[in-house]
Structure formats: structure tokens, C-alpha cells
Amino acid sequence: MTDEYFMQLALKEAMRAFEEDEIPIGAVVVQNNKVLARGYNMTEKLNDTTAHAEIIALTSAFNNIGAKYLPDATLYVTVEPCVMCSGALYWSKISRVVWGASDPKNGFSRLQSSISPFHPKTAITTGVLETECAALMKEFFILKRK
Prior knowledge:
Zn(2+) binds at residues 52, 82, 85. By secondary structure, the protein is α/β, with parallel strands linked by helices.
């Protein structure tokens, strides 16, 4: 299984968000090539500003394995995590984070810090299916502005 395969699954979650008029970000947590959890943005549906795709997926993964850390798992998310989600990923001790599109407006990198917000043992991979992930976000906001 490849990063592209799992990012496609995250994109399916993002499409669920899109169809529910949520900002289209999706995430999956994978361990040993098995999907532990899925999530998509539900901030409008739940009236909860913390109900980001990453948080939904992490909470589900913790519950699924019965542990509060994910040192052998990878999170695939369609858009660069925000500061809040980066903090949650730090505390999860997840081994790897993979995202598609960068988010200079709302992603953690907007802080322009040379210090990574992720756990020191967390590996980062960016730009996986970037074009597809960015296109979904652009389409959503174009439709919102009509």
C-alpha cells in the first residue's frame, strides 16, 4: 500500500465533508497497512470548532486500539494541519503525518517558526496528491462565494 492509496481514502472522507457543506478536509489513521480510523470536518454539524478531521480520526483511533498514543501509526490528511491539530498530533506521539495540500493561511506553518509542532519522533511527508487535495478546497470555496 502506498501513500497515494491512503491519501485517496482521506480524499473520500473530504468528499463526505464537501457533500455535508463542511470544509472538505478528510483524514485516516493507518497502522500496519490497516485503517484504524477515519474522520472528516464536522465543525458545522456538531457546532464544535474543534471537530476537525484530524481530531475526529485521532479520537476514533485511540478508542479503536484502547490507547492514548499512536507511536506506530500514520495520519493521512488532505490539508496541512492547523496549530490545534498539530498539538493533538504532538500529544498522540504518532510516528508519521502525511498531508496533501499546504495551507499557508490556516496551517501550522503560518506561525513561521523554525520549531516543529510535532513530536520529535514524528516524520512528515507533504505534497501527496497535492493537486487533488487543493482542487477540492478551491472548488468548495468557489461555490461558497457564488
